[in-house]
What we know:
Elements: E1 3-11, H1 16-31, E2 36-42, H2 58-62, E3 64-72, H3 75-84, H4 86-96, E4 101-108
Antiparallel strand pairs: 1-3, 1-4, 2-3
Amino acid sequence: MSIIYEVNLRIEPAIQHEFMSWLYEHIGEMLKLKGFIRAVVYDPQEVEGLLAEEKNEVVLEQARQVVVHYEMHDKIALKYYLERYAQSMRADGIARFPKQFSATRRVLNPLNSFKD
């Protein structure tokens, strides 16, 4: 069963258009790497009461938030990416947009799958 490699981004308003253009190119490069199946970019929206704790940080209110889900074949594919490519792929964004965005990452491992 495939896994999701999730990247949560917070982008300063001043660079968001340029950053998003770069991000789409970056995703294209990621999808050329071994083990990546597809990517979906999300614009997270608050549901009343659900993201309230984040509102305590003024910086987050001003930043554009974007979530990218990379679907990968399996944990082995993720390990391969992390060992061989992650550092250089991350360095490109940091070099282009120093201290203008933040990224956190996590892996979503499926417990079960349901379908109607």
